[in-house]
Amino acid sequence: MDSHKASQQTPDSSGKGADPHRPGSQVLLADDDRLIRSLLQMILQKKGFVISTACDGGDVLKSWEENHYDLILMDVEMPGMNGLAATQAIREKETQGQRIPIIGLTAHTAAKDRDRCLAAGMDDCLIKPVNFELLAETLRRWIGADPFSSP
């Protein structure tokens, strides 16, 4: 697994992650495309997020079981275990009341592809290439953190 953690900060006691101006939300970023993974990692780290990365669904599942994350950004199509299967596996293992937001990343734009993501247990879905305004809106919605606002 290709992993990088900037620090070991924990989210606030409310469990909602970082507020818009406090760094530290833990995000697991999963994508088999090194360029996409590196770009998103660099942008989110500069905005104060603590990013771990994974290249396939098996790595996602292992990392999720071993660490705490506030959110997972997950590519839908990865080699080995894809993002849909990894999401289903996470949902089966979660305990009641502890649902991590999982945001799908896909290059497919058809409504049926978004529906597949939601049916697998993902909470939302973004189209690649990722629009950073939509990414910020999605992060605000799911963990209350806006990486693109000014303090």
Describe the protein:
It is a single chain. The protein is α/β, with parallel strands linked by helices. The protein has one domain (about 25-145): Rossmann fold, CATH 3.40.50. It contains five helices and five strands; from the N terminus they run βαβαβαβαβα. Strands 2-1-3-4-5 form a five-stranded parallel sheet, with helices on both faces. α4 links the parallel β4 and β5. α2 packs parallel to α3. It is globular, with a radius of gyration of 14 Å.
List the defining traits of the structure above.
151 residues, 5 strands, Rossmann fold, 5-stranded parallel beta sheet, globular, alpha/beta
Describe the structure in brief:
By secondary structure, the protein is an alpha/beta fold. It is 37% helix and 16% strand. A five-stranded parallel beta sheet has the order 2-1-3-4-5, sandwiched between helices.
- The span between the termini is 33 Å
- Unreliable segments (pLDDT under 50, ≥5 consecutive)? 1-22
SSE pattern, N- to C-terminal: EHEHEHEHEH
Strands ordered across the widest β-sheet: 2-1-3-4-5
Q: Helix count? A: 5
| CATH architectural group | 3-Layer(aba) Sandwich
Proportion in helices: 25-40%
The top-level CATH class is Alpha Beta
The number of E-state strands comes to 5
